[in-house]
Amino acid sequence: MASKNKLVEALKKNFGFDTFKGNQEAIIRNLLDGKDTFVLMPTGGGKSLCYQLPSLMLDGTAIVISPLIALMKNQVDAMRNFSEEDGVAHFINSSLNKAAIDQVKTDILSGKTKLLYVAPESLTKEENIDFLKQVNVSFYAVDEAHCISEWGHDFRPEYRRIRPIINEIGNRPVIALTATATPKVQHDIQKNLGMIDAAVFKSSFNRSNLYYEVRPKTANVDKDIIKYIKQQEGKSGIIYCLSRKKVEELAELLSVNGIKVLPYHAGMDSATRTENQDAFLLEKVDVIVATIAFGMGIDKPDVRYVIHYDIPKSLEGYYQETGRAGRDGGEGQCITFYVNKDLQKLEKFMQGKPIAEQEIGKQLLMETAAYAESSLCRRKLLLHYFGEEYKGENCGNCDNCLNPKKQVEAKDLLCAVIETVIALKEEFKTEHVIDVLMGNKTSQVTAYLHDDLEVFGCGQGDDEKTWNAVIRQALIAGYLVKEIENYGLLKVTPAGRKFLDKPQPFKIVKDNDFEEVEEEIPMKGGASCAVDPELFSILKDLRKKMAKRLELPPYIIFQDPSLEAMATTYPITIEELQNIPGVGAGKAKRYGEEFIKVIKLHVDENEIERPEDLRVRTIANKSKLKVSIIQAIDRKIALDELAESKDLDFDELLDEVEAIVYSGTKINIDYFLREIMEEDHIEEVFEYFKESESDSLEEAINEYGMDYTEEEIRLIRIKFLSEMGN
Fold this sequence. Notes:
Blueprint: H1 4-15, H2 24-32, E1 37-40, H3 49-57, E2 61-65, H4 69-82, E3 89-92, H5 98-109, E4 115-118, H6 120-123, H7 126-132, E5 137-142, H8 162-169, E6 174-178, H9 183-192, E7 199-202, E8 210-216, H10 221-231, E9 236-240, H11 244-256, E10 261-264, H12 270-281, E11 287-290, E12 303-308, H13 315-322, E13 332-338, H14 340-349, H15 355-373, H16 378-385, H17 399-402, E14 407-409, H18 411-423, H19 430-438, H20 443-447, H21 464-477, E15 480-482, E16 490-492, H22 494-501, E17 507-509, H23 533-550, H24 554-557, H25 560-569, H26 574-577, H27 584-605, H28 624-634, H29 639-645, H30 650-662, H31 670-676, H32 679-691, H33 697-704, H34 710-725
Helix pairs in contact: 2-3, 14-15, 18-19, 18-22, 23-25, 23-27, 30-34, 32-34, 33-34
């Protein structure tokens, strides 16, 4: 065994550090002694050093199995920086050509290479197995070991083949490392790698500098995020979204609001991804909006906030992503936006997968929902999930602890839960236990004849939310436990049985309410209660005067719903005005100056406090379909052919074209109109709209319906709106 001095000398010589962090020294000693080692160490704890240093101290080459090409490259570059010998570390993966792989093999066989990083897919290739049989392997390191478990947040089936391949290449000590593993996942890893007897080194998952908060995801979520980022001027942050589309949209929205931001997702080409990642690391941009593809192995110490736009699929994913904040021990804010319907969407995505996979996914989503909705200390909940007990009652650094809810006595409720779990022979999950308590005759309850049990319906007086809170808090208090082997089955602990014999006071806090939040409804006609009636009247007068001066119908300038919106949100710049429904950039520039002057005067005279979030600029909502329609009209494609090519009815195409002109975009459909109508007929209906007080299609049809079809009238109205209004 290496002496303490020898170890510290090797650390200083190879990495320039004077002391080890946390469990590093004990882990390294165990591996140098040739023993299997299991390392559970949160992000930023120094996992890589646990296999890098022993690889340099032992004879032969250590094989590191890692799932990420970018991560391998970073680690190999880092090792080469520490060493004078470029061949000290190599990787083999699909990004290398044959000549590069031959060079790697030469360096390994000559004894230069101490560390070889291999992707699990490359490890399973017959030619690589044959080559590695010739190599003097010092040990195997399985990084991101949670990928072995279906219960982990990043399951990869090829990880399941690692043990048989190790047996084939040659048996040596194994070190498995992960930053996130529940007791269930840990058990899976050890069982699958055949290292049940390994020494386990578990560091605390508590990141005391991280602040956790879950906010309701309302229709104003984008505005909330912009407001939050503006308050974090100059600080680095990551925003995680589940879909690539949302990443692109949100990055664009933040950018038009003056935030230095770039997107990152797996659908982008790798050069752009690398460029964007580097721009973030080099602080050319403050914010990265990303899918979970971003961040693995990103060692930026001063990320000050991590925002989850969408709740992640599992608490492991959540822990790992939030763990990218405050790695230097400084401030780290973890803000998550949550609404229950997001989880329902995630559950829908799982349909079509094998039943076992769906069941696992559903259990993981339930754990996530429990975390989001609970009023308990978030740190306590998170650590309990990873098999660690947080002793404090109030961490003082999460939303629930800073705004504690009133506790209620639940001694009788806990007794009812324990009795029901025992009556069900400890063979069922939370959902089923609650169904029995509440007397729900589900197909599963009746199939097992559990509606005949004495406990059936004994908890009808309380709702599902309450029972969920009781069970969750009983798990944390140690009265119940979820079985590890068959995850999710509720068991009663000895402490729980003791409680049933001699009940003690048991206080719980009711869950937070995150009911589905109504979406904002785009403004249609009819005055809204938020409208300032005095300003609305002033704006109508202004519109009337302007219409007279320009010899236009008033509705061409701005329609009533647009005036209502102005009298609700008080835009005082052209930029703000063009965000008003039905205005757009063209109309704002053409008619806007006088309107914003009048609004500003009204705001100043009446000392009106404008809504803060008005200053959020939106991006023009031109869908791909609308853009392609505009381009086709520019190319003078006949509208009936255009409708057919877009798989639309002619009416549906006209709906789209009307939306385009109402938002202020100018188009010219004369080429089509002249094909289907006489010039004087077009002029006749055009003149009608010019003199009319309204653009109502109904009124126009009453006037001209005998002479022209509805489509013809709509087409002339489109021509009129475009020429006169845009």
